[in-house]
Design goal:
Elements (H helix, E strand, L loop, with lengths): L1 H30 L4 E8 L3 E10 L3 E5 L2 E4 L11 E9 L5 E10 L7 H4 L5 E5 L9 H5 L2 E7 L5 E7 L1 E7 L1
Length: about 170
């Protein structure tokens, strides 16, 4: 009888030890969540962009909140009625795809291009198809195409290549 009790207690202790190990091991793995933060900058002929962010968490991605500054005379575009920002990255197959766009237009008055573009805005979403296959090189390939019209209504466009200024993995 004593041998049976000792055997059963041993089995219970060993099984509890195995289950405890498995449970705490899974808790440690799930708490090691990695978040990647990339900050990108770029300069063009008429525009500079700084602090554009790409924040990648385990189930969502945020792009945006860059600061866009016009390098020309602000009075040349103070009555602009249109602008478009289009951010592109390469996908895992090397093709450029639009990941975020922002458009502003107005009729009968200016669109306040300088005030609106101080912050590029942002987009946060679930992962799209093939997003998890992207790496630092894909984000390093980010471009901004900005299209705007001036006071005379003439349409201008500029492509700015962004480069990673800072990255952090948490």
């Amino acid at each position: 009888m004593k041998k049976t009790i000792v055997l059963l207690l041993s089995i219970i202790i060993i099984s509890n030890g195995i289950w405890s190990y498995m449970y705490f091991n899974s808790v440690v793995k799930s708490s090691n969540i990695e978040v990647q933060v990339y900050t990108l900058n770029g300069t063009g002929e008429k525009w500079n962009i700084t602090d554009y962010k790409i924040i990648i968490s385990p189930n969502k991605i945020l792009r945006g909140h860059g600061n866009l500054a016009y390098k020309g005379d602000p009075t040349d575009i103070e009555n602009s009625t249109y602008y478009k920002l289009e951010f592109k990255e390469t996908n895992p197959y090397g093709e450029y795809e639009t990941v975020y766009a922002n458009v502003g237009s107005s009729k009968g008055g200016p669109v306040s291009i300088l005030a609106d573009l101080n912050d590029t805005g942002s987009i946060k979403s679930e992962y799209s198809y093939d997003e998890l296959q992207k790496d630092r090189q894909n984000y390093e390939s980010t471009t901004l195409t900005i299209t705007w019209n001036d006071n005379e209504g003439e349409l201008h466009s500029e492509i700015i290549n962004l480069s990673i200024n800072n990255d952090m993995h948490i």
